[in-house]
Amino acid sequence: MAKLIYSMVTSLDGYAEASEGGLGTGADDPEVHTFINDLFRPVGTYLYGRRMYETMVYWETAHTEPDQPPHILQYARDWQAAEKIVYSTTLESVAGAKTRIERTFDPEAVRTLKAEADQDLTVDGPNLAAQAIAAGLVDEFHLFVTTSVVGGGKRFFPENVRLDLELVEQRAFGSGLIYARYRTHSGG
């Protein structure tokens, strides 16, 4: 059975999206990006909400821009090779042959997808992840914590959720960004 992974950059005070501005520095560091490339290369399917998909669709054509560094080209190749499912009631079309739209997030369909998948899946974006967390579908949480406190926005973890997690990996980068990987006690 494949794992479902929720991973995002988050501020030191736990926000995956800031009310105003960015989440701080560190995630754009080539060392961090190369680590992320290696970490997510084995992912076979990305689950996105509309807004996160609209951010990530950049990778469909990133390789065509001139003077891209090797770590950017590698991520674009890896992203293009994976399947993408976009959950949206308003999106009319998607880019790329490996992308499809689903109108609603169906926890049982995702559970079946996990059971049948040979490669891990990710759920990206705090809104969609909140639905997956509430359904007990997320097996691992990968946090990339910046050095900034942003004071508000959309939290990495949804409100009113209790999780007891096990820290299984951590790493600090020269930029100050900290990576922490947690597993649910029932997860793989």
From TrEMBL:
GO terms assigned for molecular function: 5-amino-6-(5-phosphoribosylamino)uracil reductase activity
Source species, domain of life: Bacteria
InterPro entries, sorted: DHFR-like_dom_sf, RibDG_C, Riboflavin_Biosynth_HTPR
SUPFAM superfamilies found in the cross-reference section: Dihydrofolate reductase-like (SSF53597)
Biological processes annotated in GO: riboflavin biosynthetic process
A Pfam family matched in the record: RibD_C
TM stretches of this protein: none
Domain Bacterial bifunctional deaminase-reductase C-terminal as annotated: residue spans: 3-178
Protein name: Deaminase
